[in-house]
Design a protein that fits this description.
Layout (H helix, E strand, L loop, with lengths): L29 H6 L2 H11 L1 H28 L5 E6 L5 E2 L4 H10 L13 E2 H12 L4 E7 L15 H22 L5 E6 L5 H7 L4 E4 L4 E2 L12 H7 L1 E8 L7 H4 L5 H27 L7 H9 L4 E2 H7 L4 E2 L2 H10 L23 H12 L5 E4 H15 L4 E10 L10 H13 L5 E8 L4 H16 L4 E11 L1 H4 L6 E4 L4 E3 L3 E8 L1 H6 L22 H26 L14 E3 H6 L4 H7 L6 H9 L22 H4 L14 H4 L55 E4 L1 H14 L6 E2 L6 E2 L12 E2 L2 H23 L5 H8 L4 E4 L5 E12 L5 H7 L1
Parallel strand pairs: 1-4, 1-11, 2-3, 4-5, 5-6, 6-10, 12-13, 12-24, 13-14, 14-15, 14-16, 15-22
Antiparallel strand pairs: 7-9, 8-17, 16-18, 19-24, 20-21, 23-24
């Protein structure tokens, strides 16, 4: 029989368990042993559940990475004892309000890092002042290093701070020095400024506030005083064939003069010269106070004035004149602070010597040098912006229920319906603030020299609605300038605060009407043919007739009279005397304050009430500590405050209060209050100290620690407003009798000055102060008015009960005199609310 063919053979049996090979391996083979092993079975199970396994690995990796990053963040955010803040200061780094340009500044600078500082950050002026107030109550911070150099800064259009803004920062730094030296001792607090070169007088002005100022050997100090040059186009206009008709009310209104003439009139020249002299005196008074107040027998202001006649100065010349303390490089300053080097190693540049052979070098010198570079720094360094963010996070976490938000609306630049800070934005911001139930008071921050009368009146109407329709308290805060239309919009606010160098006033109206004559068009070979059905008064090719000119002048007169009427009504000034401060006069904030302030207080502000010998003696005691000193690191944990405790410092005393006497600011106002009883706050109380909860041997603090772990955390606050209910109630009562913000007295360390308002009423401004002062003052007025309103609706209620009902979440503390004082944190909330890109997209 024949054998069956391949096609007829039965198929091979299918393996019972599919494996790598299609056929089962012989028993006892390697493959068989692997297939029956425990590891193989585990691998089979893992492959079966591979999705869950990979997901678990991914989740585990994510959790571990998140915890690692959080641990790094905690370590990075820990503020050690003996910490110095590194503050990078450059043009555009501090702004009034962040805008699209500020955000571009941040984006372009995010990758530019130059050790040891953090990338340049943009901070608002209020954030800078608030951070300085944080430092006042933080005993871990032993000093500030300010870097004014031009390395690692963004290449975007800069924003230069004006004199008024610089004065606010300076006053905060001077107050910081006074508080720190009182609490820590003169030898335990140190501020140092360094730059490669100073590019402006304003930059040097701010640097002079620091205890020590150093400059690179090739730098310079451009101290030359203030100056101004105005071009006049009258002859050019006439040559071109343009006839410019101008109306100004009145003789001091110089806005139109450059377009119609070849020089200022005598009143305009006198006013301009006085303004420039006042600003120059303010600038040089600060520099003189900061650098030369300890020189016996020297009038610091006159001494600096003499220096401006021979400026600018090279770095070497500036050191010789006493404008800076030494010539060095940045690393020399850092070594001095972090490694405790001596003064002579920092204040002088190292000489460049010829190279020497290695064999000739002393072995001991080499060993000592290597050891000096390898030693661990005794002091720590932390970025100023980083410190601000850490403290703000702690405040937000531990003090959310104790915060009173104050609205802020920014009006900047020429008043008109254009730009991010134009009329539409300001009006919308005021309306949003009025509709926000969490806001009881609003600060209108103005930095404008004026603009359109129509737009100014529109904003004025929005301010009126904010007060009358929404019942909000409104305080105007003047920045570098608030003149003409800038003053128009603030006439009916509850109070006005300005800096000594704010440019204000200019209560007047000006209008221009150009006429293009036939010769203008003949030069261009242009012919015209016109048709009119009515008046030709608005045709720029038509000269006004006498009747049209009379109507034009009448319109300007009406606007001027309306302006004066608003000032008289809002500021309670007699119409009989308004012309003496109107007429277009421009003045500084200090001179505007003089109009209605007691002469004794003005003398005190200018230092005229301090005998020369007494002033020199007081100033000489300020600089006793050596310039370069070694700061010993503490390992005991004493004097170390937790981050949340720093925010907990209680404040007593007057806000809108600049530093005391001539020990700090040359324009130190002990207190600017709208009523005798109303006082505003300064942060002065000592911060409770405690060792680190994590490591007693190496004291550090953790900003994320629980608030319940320390009783002080229950009262955590910074920038605290401290006033008794009785004081606030009395303030509201007096304000109701005399007007919302009638100034009746000014109290403080320099004495109490009482006076009658007289024909000038409340004057042009209510007091001297910056943005933070205005915010705290607005908070006080809001609380005072709230107490009065509640008591009027509920007769028989005590002041204490009224304020507890008004602010149920506020903390109360027992003061030294037994009074119960309220303590809250004052923050700013910007309007209109800034929406993100996605929020704006969602609305559309």
């Amino acid at each position: 029989m024949a054998e069956p063919g391949p096609a007829e053979q039965p198929p091979s049996p299918r393996p019972a368990t599919p494996g790598v090979a299609a056929h089962s391996a012989p028993s006892g083979s390697l493959v068989s042993r692997i297939g029956s092993s425990r590891g193989y079975r585990y691998a089979q199970t893992a492959w079966k559940w591979k999705g869950l396994v990979l997901g678990g690995v991914a989740v585990t990796y994510a959790v571990v990475s998140w915890n690692a990053e959080k641990a790094k963040a905690r370590k990075r955010d820990t503020i050690h004892p003996n910490t110095y803040l590194y503050w990078k200061i450059y043009d555009g780094g501090i702004v009034e309000a962040k805008s699209a340009g500020s955000n571009l500044n941040y984006l372009l600078s995010s990758s530019q890092r130059g050790a040891p500082e953090e990338p340049p950050r943009v901070m608002e002026l209020f954030e800078v002042i608030r951070t300085i107030k944080f430092v006042e109550n933080d005993d871990r911070i032993k000093g500030i290093i300010a870097d004014f150099s031009h390395t690692s800064i963004p290449s975007v259009p800069s924003y230069n701070l004006g004199l008024a803004q610089l004065e606010e920062i300076q006053d905060a730094l001077l107050e910081l020095r006074r508080v720190k030296q009182e609490r820590l001792g003169r030898d335990e607090w140190r501020t140092v400024a360094w730059t490669d070169t100073f590019t402006s007088q304003g930059q040097y002005l701010l640097a002079s506030t620091f205890d020590e100022v150093y400059c690179q050997p090739t730098g310079e100090v451009p101290l030359v005083g203030l100056g101004s040059t105005t071009p006049f186009f009258g002859r050019l206009a006439r040559w071109l064939g343009i006839e410019v008709h101008a109306e100004a009310r009145k003789e001091y209104k110089s806005f139109v003069q450059p377009y119609i003439d070849e020089k200022f009139t005598d009143p305009q020249r006198e006013n301009t010269h006085q303004l420039l002299s006042d600003l120059n005196d303010n600038l040089l008074a600060y520099i003189g106070r900061n650098r030369f107040s300890d020189k016996s027998g020297v009038n610091s202001l006159e001494h600096v004035k003499a220096l401006t006649q021979v400026g600018p100065f090279s770095a070497a010349q500036a050191k010789e004149k006493g404008l800076i303390d030494g010539l060095c490089y940045r690393q020399d300053v850092l070594d001095s602070v972090l490694l405790g080097k001596k003064e002579e190693e920092v204040g002088e540049p190292k000489e460049i010597e010829e190279p020497k052979k290695v064999e000739q070098e002393d072995a001991l010198v080499k060993a000592a040098t290597a050891a000096a570079h390898e030693q661990k720094p005794e002091n720590k360094l932390m970025g100023f912006y980083h410190y601000h963010k850490v403290l703000e996070k702690a405040v937000e976490k531990h003090m959310a229920q104790e915060t009173i938000p104050i609205g802020v609306v920014y009006l900047q630049g020429t008043i008109g319906d254009v730009g991010e800070f134009g009329t539409a934005s300001v009006v919308r911001g005021l309306k949003e603030a009025g509709e926000d139930d969490t806001i009881g008071a609003v600060v209108l921050r103005i930095d404008s020299g004026g603009g359109s009368v129509i737009d100014s009146d529109t904003i004025w109407g929005a301010v009126r609605d904010l007060r009358e329709k929404y019942g909000k308290t409104v305080v105007a805060s003047f920045g570098n300038s608030s003149a003409s239309g800038g003053y128009w919009v603030s006439t009916h606010t509850d109070a006005i605060l300005a800096a000594p160098s704010t440019v204000t006033g200019s209560i007047g109206v000006a209008a221009l009407r150009p006429t293009f004559l036939q010769c203008f068009f003949d030069r261009l070979h242009i012919s015209l043919e016109s048709f009119f059905t009515g008046s030709r008064a608005q045709d720029p090719t038509h000269s006004l007739t006498p009747a049209e000119l009379d109507r034009y002048r009448k319109s300007v007169d009406d606007m001027y009279d309306d302006f004066k009427r608003r000032v008289c009504e809002g500021r309670e000034i007699s119409p009989e005397v308004i012309e003496g401060i109107a007429g277009g006069r421009v003045m500084t904030g200090l001179r505007a304050f003089e109009i209605n302030a007691p002469k004794e207080l003005i003398d005190h502000l200018k230092g005229l009430d301090i005998p020369a010998a007494e002033g020199v003696e007081a100033a000489a005691s300020k600089e006793e500590a050596p310039k370069i000193q070694q700061v010993e690191a503490s390992s005991s944990g004493e004097g170390v405050a937790d981050t949340k405790e720093v925010a907990a410092a209680a404040a007593n005393g007057p806000v809108a209060t600049l530093p005391e006497d001539q020990e700090t600011s040359p324009f130190a106002v002990p207190e600017v209050a709208s009523t005798p009883e109303l006082a505003a706050p300064v942060d002065t109380a000592k911060v409770p100290s405690s060792p680190s909860p994590t490591d007693a041997a190496t004291p550090t603090t953790n900003p994320d620690s629980s608030a319940e772990s320390d009783p002080a955390a229950a009262h955590a606050q910074q920038a605290l407003l401290t006033s008794t209910p009785e004081e606030l109630a009395a303030s509201a009562s007096l304000a109701k009798q005399k007007g919302a913000s009638s100034v009746g007295a000014v109290n403080g360390a320099a004495g109490e000055y009482e006076y009658e308002p007289g024909p000038y009423g409340r004057g042009l401004i209510d007091g001297l102060g910056g943005l933070r002062d205005a915010a705290v003052y607005a908070c006080q007025l809001f609380i005072a008015n709230g107490i009065a309103g509640y008591k009027e609706e509920n007769p028989g209620v005590s002041d204490d009960e009224a304020i507890r009902m008004l602010l149920p979440d506020a903390k109360f503390a027992i003061m030294e005199d037994g009074e119960v004082a309220m303590q809250v944190d004052v923050t700013l909330k910007r309007f209109p609310v800034q929406k993100s890109f996605w929020q704006q997209l969602a609305v559309r």
